[in-house]
Amino acid sequence: MKPLACLALLLTLLVGCSPVAVSQPPVATALPPATTTPLPTKVPAPTFTPLPTATPTATPSPTAMPSPTATPTPIVLSYVFPVEAAWLEYGEYHHTYPATDIFCPTGSRFVAPTSGVIDFVSYEDRWNPAADDPAIRGGISVAMLGDDGVRYYGSHLSSIAEGIAVGERVHSGQLLGLTGNSGNARSTPPHVHFGISRPTTPDDWQVRRGEISPYPYLRAWQRGENLTPALP
């Protein structure tokens, strides 16, 4: 056998006897799992439940208080006997119309029986017996309108007190004049002709001289009672 043939045979035998390296696929190396950053989850926008809005408490409007009404001050009426004298006397009756003649010494004080305003004054004695004018028979005289709505009249005076004039306010017990016997009382004892009537015009001598009897009121005033005359 030729040497080349023998070599080839030998190689063949060697190959057949040696383990044949089997080529295997490369083993894939397990890579660590990739760390993936999760995509941000879309978080829904938070829903805000609105807090209940505090409803402002309505401030009540201040109740308009009514303007205080001025309450008129009540007039407290007081009465005094209209003559201040050392002595005096008077009767329950008069002659042809209601009035009272209060007899007293000349110069006694004739005072306001209550508070009021002077309504009429005669400063002079103008009575003439020949004419006998009834409007001036009272001679020196004065009348006042009381706060009680009653007119008071005194005549046959000897003088009128200083400051007494129509429209002047006087108070209870204020001096109006001094007693005498002027007018048609010249021939009679000194006295004050005292009349009570409703208010009329100052020249209304017929009403002014007297409409109701002063007697019960004079008696009450002497006792210290505040009795208001009741007009017809």
From TrEMBL:
PROSITE patterns in UniProt: PROKAR_LIPOPROTEIN
Residue segments, region Disordered: 32-69
Keyword vocabulary terms for this entry: Signal
Gene3D superfamilies recorded: Glucose Permease (Domain IIA)
M23ase beta-sheet core domain: residues covered: 99-198
Endpoints of the signal sequence: 1-23
Low complexity composition-biased segments: 50-62
Family annotation (PANTHER family): PEPTIDASE M23 DOMAIN-CONTAINING PROTEIN (PTHR21666:SF268), PEPTIDASE-RELATED (PTHR21666)
Protein name: M23 family peptidase
Species per Swiss-Prot/TrEMBL record: Candidatus Viridilinea halotolerans
